[in-house]
Amino acid sequence: MAIIDPRHAAKQLIYERVFRAATLCAAILVLLILGGVAISLLRGAWPALQHFGFAFVEREIWNPVTDEYGALAPIYGTVLTSVIAMLLAVPAGFGIALFLTELCPPLLKRPIGVAVELLAAVPSIIFGIWGLFVLAPVLQRYVQPWLIAHLGGLPVAGALFKGPPYGIGLLTAGVVLAIMVLPFIAATMRDVFDTVPQMLKESGYGLGATTWEVMWNVVVPHSRVGIVGGIMLGLGRALGETMAVTFVIGNAHRITASLLAPGTTISSTIANEFTEAVGDLYTSSLIALGLLLFLITFSVIAAAQAMLRRLERRAGVAV
Amino acid sequence: MSRRTLRKAKNAVFLSLSLIATMTGLACLAAILWTLLSRGVAGMSLRLFTEMTPPPGGQGGLLNALYGSAVMTLLGILIGAPIGVLAGTHLSEYGRGSRLSTLIRFINDVLLSAPSIIIGLFVYEIVVIRMGHFSAIAGALSLAILAIPVTLRTTEDMLNLVPTSMKDSSAALGAYPWRTTLSVLYPAARSGIVTGLLLAVARISGETAPLLFTALNNQFWSTQLNAPMANLPVVIFQFALSPYKDWQNLAWAGALIITVAILLLSISARVLLAVLQADRGA
After folding, report:
1. What is the pLDDT of residue A123?
2. Looking at chain A from residue 46 to 65, which residues have their Cβ under 8 Å from any Cβ of chain B?
3. Looking at chain B, which residue has its C-alpha nearest residue A250?
4. Sign of CA dihedral B47, B48, B49, B54
5. Helix crossing, A266-273 with A72-98: angle to 10°?
6. CA of B32: which chain A residue's CA is closest?
7. So what's the pLDDT on residue A25?
8. Shortest CA distance to A174 belongs to which of A160, A191, A158, A155?
9. What's the pLDDT band for A5 if we cut at 50, 70, 90?
């Protein structure tokens, strides 16, 4: 007597194969999406790349009337705003992570952690509209005049703080970006600090070290890779952020030394001009900008993920 | 000053700085919420939900934009979530430890933080150019692509949390993995997977950049999926940057609606996860 009905078993095997194939297809689709993004951007950017060659990334000109395009100003703006954002957000994120792991009373740990994560959930367009209507006027009225008066006269660095206080511009975009990436950096650093074995920290305290000394001499060296990974993840977000920047950057296709002047970034140029672009070369140049952004952010994020993964593996071995 | 006092002073300075950083972060959240409330509540009225977006200087509401956002978000989730859940199932159940899975996991994490405007350009290239015009379906597709990484990641994590003994029991009864997955693993990980879906909805419903070149916008009521469709984020973008007071007020009202919706979604996702963890602990 057969315990298993052969027909039933055969049907089960078919279902199994179908289900397995479906999950595999879905998984492969993820690879195809990334590949598709790369290929379609390259194809769309090809006319511009062919027409301008390598000069595309070297030239500052961006003139739809004469159909001449160069990516230098958007690249400059993208890099500069992200650098400003990181200079502000990294120390602040480190401080928040330190507070959450070492200082915070247990009762407040969860609410504050959730609040930081909620800040990360706020859509970027909200940061943009808030930056334009609330932050920019405040910076224009109080912060920028102070910067111009006190730092504008410095020998070399002074050039960064020259010119009228527009309110909108590279500095404002950098500040808005800093607020946006702050929760990501803080949350990653907190998670990384949590992987440091309690025993190591207690050994530090046992030797009489202060909280800061344990932090700086035990926790930070132990989680260095993860910290850098978290920072780069935040950098990846800052480089590619579109809406928050588009509101406050000022959209000026030129390179100026002053941080207070309006500028442009890769993503805000695309967001502002893409639907209005007439002519194949114009559209293609905008897609070429997208390709550049893709290459830059992809390498930064991939490096960040690789670092965080290395840390995970090490933590796995230590336990 | 002795070395001891110096060390203590240094400690106090850095700990205060850390406290200040935390306060600043919380203050930013409070400031954003306060601005949204104070400016958005003024624009709140029944008209928002009954009338279309107005021409400049006119009065109106956001009905077509709210409808469009709901439709495209729903479609995006309906397309993206099954793919994400299935792919997550593959990584957790079939491909554990294989090279391909490691690669897919890595690429997925990259897609998770990739700039959304790039996805917009991608969908523009493959859908909008082919169709010859902007459309709601293109918008929904770009949102679906953004929803996949979020659902994949949470599904995999949640399936990994299901105790192996449950899987083994099912296998011992003669069930194939597909049966085990559908009848044992999915029910066991249900609230975790739902959390992932909520987070994905929260993520895509506020996205603006990918909709700019896919769904575009539409000033009128439209339910056609192959035509441009109004949506809240793009309306906020256009209206906020306009010089008209009425439009700006509508933008603030829309911003308040969208933020409250997304924060509620994120909070319920977290509550669900907390309940799940409490269950597991007990």
Report:
1. 93
2. none
3. B241
4. positive
5. 120
6. A130
7. 96
8. A160
9. confident
SS3 A250: strand
Q: Is the pLDDT of residue A16 over 90?
A: yes
**74-133 in A: which are within 8 Å (CB) of B?**
91-96, 98-100, 103, 112, 114-119, 121-130, 132-133
Cite the DSSP H helix spans in chain A: 6-52, 72-98, 106-121, 124-130, 136-138, 144-151, 170-194, 198-206, 211-214, 220-222, 224-240, 243-248, 266-273, 280-318
Q: What does the block give as tokens for A114?
A: 């959730």
Q: Do B212 and A271 touch (CB under 8 A)?
A: yes
Which residues of chain B neighbour A233 with C-beta distances below 8 Å?
A: 113
User: Most B CBs within 10 Å: which of A108, A122, A215, as the mutation test of the B interface?
Assistant: A122
Which residues of chain A have a CB within 8 Å of the CB of B255?
Answer: 125-126, 129
**Band of residue A4 on the pLDDT scale cut at 50, 70, 90:** low
Higher per-residue confidence, A85 vs A159:
A85
The pTM of this model reads 0.91
- A26 contact B CB<8A: yes
Q: Over 60: is that where the pLDDT of A266 sits?
A: yes
Low-confidence ranges of chain B (pLDDT < 70): 1, 280-282
Closest CA to A169 of A280, A45, A254, A273: A254
Percentage of chain A lying above the pLDDT 90 cut = 60
Report pLDDT digits (tens) over A208-226: 999 999 999 999 998 888 8
Closest CA to B119 of B206, B210, B234, B231: B210
Interface-testing mutation among A129, A300, A301, A312, with chain B (most B C-beta atoms within 10 A): A129
Would the CB atoms of B25 and A122 count as touching at under 8 Å? Answer: no
